[in-house]
Amino acid sequence: MVTMLDVARCAGVSKSTVSRVLNNKNVVREEIKALVYKAIAETGYRPNLLAQQLATQKTSMIGLVITNEVYNGPFFSTLVYNAAKFCEQHDHRLIFADGKHSADEEINAIDFLVRMKCAGVMVYARHTPHAELEKIINESPMPVMILNQRLSVCPDRNIFIDHYRGGEIVMDYLLSQGHTHIAWIGGKMPSPSNTARQQAWRDNVHPDCAALVAQGDWSMESGYQAALTLIDGAAPFTAILAANDDMALGAIKALKDRGLRVPQDISVAGFDNAKIGHYFSPSLTTLDTPIEQMIQCAVEQIVGLSPDRPAQGLTGTLVIRDSVGPVPVLMPN
Amino acid sequence: MVTMLDVARCAGVSKSTVSRVLNNKNVVREEIKALVYKAIAETGYRPNLLAQQLATQKTSMIGLVITNEVYNGPFFSTLVYNAAKFCEQHDHRLIFADGKHSADEEINAIDFLVRMKCAGVMVYARHTPHAELEKIINESPMPVMILNQRLSVCPDRNIFIDHYRGGEIVMDYLLSQGHTHIAWIGGKMPSPSNTARQQAWRDNVHPDCAALVAQGDWSMESGYQAALTLIDGAAPFTAILAANDDMALGAIKALKDRGLRVPQDISVAGFDNAKIGHYFSPSLTTLDTPIEQMIQCAVEQIVGLSPDRPAQGLTGTLVIRDSVGPVPVLMPN
DNA sequence: GTGAAAGCGCTAACAG
DNA sequence: CTGTTAGCGCTTTCAC
């Protein structure tokens, strides 16, 4: 491996001079500069970023911790896509650490990124208790931003989406269409999004519906199964609200497979506004979750672009499409 | 920031002793070990990974360069999900660099990862000429694995999928259903997958179909538009083959919107076996691309688990579902 | 302007 | 077993 010293020798100057021309520090004489560049080209020198970052005490990496339960759905895709996009936009690089499926593993993942001296780290966690997160935030030399869950402390390290309000928005729409008996398909717990959305459902739905709950795990398949359970249950309903679009889509397939029409017989709505929802039949009514905004906000906070407190309580907007219709006159179930 | 020296002082030992207990080198006396652990706890010491990696000359990061054109579809999602999964499986971390949309930017991204001293880097590029890639492979001290395109050199740094053969498999099936007039919806160029698949289409389709080509950019929307163009064109056809599932799904929506039934009037097939294909109506016939295998192979090659030459010429398997049917007796168009 | 020398925080001989 | 001493490759005073 060719180091800065090799370049220096090759150019007949000192290490510091090479460093200077590379960093445009102090004015180096033009002729020497040329010599150095020539030597760099000849030797094929590539500065070692580990060494550089150790010396300068700063890096250009932004860490992202993510529980692998959100993996591999449109939500994950959007999250990562936007994280990478905004990082690059600010000349940083995204580095990943898998939070897997326990508090210990999440904490480990954060620890890795902190010890890598990332410029900042974004945490999309599920299991770690808030007290623990708070401790990490306070002990870490770089900003650690907690995404998608509301902390009672450290508001400037916290960007969350108001999923309760989001749930209300969708429920309001469902109610406005005359639905009173609305079933709920939940995502995998623990999850702040799921909890809040479910609460919004519970608080707004007819009290008879308490039993109209089926548990999924965010995947289409689980939505499919959950819907079957609901259909086979005793309680009648005219609409299904699923905690995300994937499950809503799975549910629609289940309804169709059982000969039920959407939305004529049963209406279905979801959350997150996955792209496919527009192309599905029927196209999916959903809440557009402001993931992009959330990530942008986090990245800008880390790179120090937005001096003020990060945006909080983002809600998202309702996307009305075909999967929700007026309540049918006769309950089919 | 608390360093190893602080811990050493706190425990009343030398730096090397601390290092030893941390790395389980040489047997350190139990009582001293305890002292050190106590000091670590007291000081809240967190080892600096940059320093450690600089000193040991090895890192636990695996780099991934990816052109941002594949971003944000199911293909991207699967790629990143699996990359992260296999990295973690081998106790490594995934680090990202965006290849954006030009050869220069791709090379830059690779360079960053190389200079970060990643254990290895995986390159999913589109624009960089092979000669350039070859040069990078040879000059880099760590394995640089080129994914999804066939290099004429460096076979052990190259894992590709035989998209031509994959294309043939789908075409064979379409032909076996009696289709002769098959339209093609292509992805964004340049792309090795697209080129090879399109070639397979061209080599197997009826010569009359040369004009039955529409250009997309891999997105559902572009598939939708491409299908409209095809429908509005003069040439008749009974099937559409799209270079990926997203475009196939967009195309199906376009056909439906124009009152055409799939597959009764027009059959549609895609590539990649996106999860949603199973839930769509009609469910999508597609080729399951072995992305997971490709990534697994790359990661194992990097961590030195598979001593032999990496797998090459993976093809994938046909997933037969409902979007392709027998050719209709009367061409609808 | 440029070079020498002292770090950044850690590991790895080498003595003892 | 443990401490001392050099590095790893780069930046950054501080003199000249």
From TrEMBL, chains A, B:
Residues 2-56 form the HTH lacI-type domain. Keywords: DNA-binding, Transcription, Transcription regulation. PROSITE patterns: HTH_LACI_1, HTH_LACI_2. SUPFAM superfamilies: lambda repressor-like DNA-binding domains (SSF47413), Periplasmic binding protein-like I (SSF53822). InterPro entries: HTH_LacI (IPR000843), LacI/GalR-like_sensor (IPR046335), Lambda_DNA-bd_dom_sf (IPR010982), Peripla_BP_I (IPR028082). SMART domains: HTH_LACI (SM00354). This is LacI family transcriptional regulator. It comes from Mixta hanseatica.
